[in-house]
Amino acid sequence: MNIAFFLIPKKDVAYLKVNSTMRQALERMEFHGYAAVPLIDSRGHYAGTLTEGDLLWKLKNTPDLTFNNTEKIHLHEIEQRTQNTPVSINALINDLISRAIHQNFVPVTDDQGIFIGIVRRREIIEYCAKLLNTSNQISSK
């Protein structure tokens, strides 16, 4: 199965550029209700995943940092504790499944490493459940 079938294109994904501010990240994550978002560099390459935990650790470890001055902190200054490894658009479904065990979403890149979207764990689980249901129906006949 081609993973493009599961792809949520970049235009429909809430992502951030690495030169965005911590405040922008907090506001975007709150608005969308996300616990993690992909980061994109100035050339459009996938640059990592920012999580709520990353933001909390930055807040904890930065004296005098308050919500009001989070606009002074750029995302490239925040350590990313989770490494969501991207897959190529040409990857196999097994590559998605193995990554989705540890990631809420799998970033997808084109042949030049440009971020083109994500595949959410939910779609992968739904696909696997459908396969299991089909297999069970065949077995019971």
Structural summary, described in words:
With about 140 residues, this protein is an alpha/beta fold. The protein has a single domain (about 5-140), classed as CBS-domain (Roll). The chain is about 35% helix and about 20% strand. It has helices at about 20-30, 50-60, 95-100, 120-140; strands at about 10, 15, 35-40, 45-50, 85-90, 105-110, 115-120. The strands form two sheets. The protein has a four-stranded mixed sheet. It has a three-stranded mixed sheet with strand order 2-3-4. A hairpin with a 5-residue loop joins strand 6 (about 105-110) and strand 7. The longest helix has 19 residues, at about 120-140. The model has no long low-confidence stretch (mean pLDDT about 90).
The stretches of 5 or more residues where confidence is low (pLDDT under 50) are none
CATH architecture: Roll
Tally the helices: what do you get?
Answer: 4
CATH-wise, what's the superfamily?
A: CBS-domain
How many separate domains make up the residues? 1
Rg: 17 Å
SSE arrangement, N to C = EEHEEHEHEEH
Class, according to the CATH hierarchy?
Alpha Beta
Main beta sheet: 4 strands, mixed
* CATH fold assignment: CBS-domain
Mean pLDDT across all amino acids: 91
- Our measurement of the CA-to-CA distance between the termini, rounded to an integer number of angstroms, reads 25 Å
Q: What is the overall silhouette?
A: elongated
The number of distinct β-strands equals 7
Oligomeric status: single chain
Q: Please list the strands of the largest sheet in the order they lie side by side.
A: 1-7-6-5
Roughly what fraction of the amino acids lie in strands?
A: 15-25%
| Structural classification | alpha/beta
Please give the share of residues in helix: 25-40%
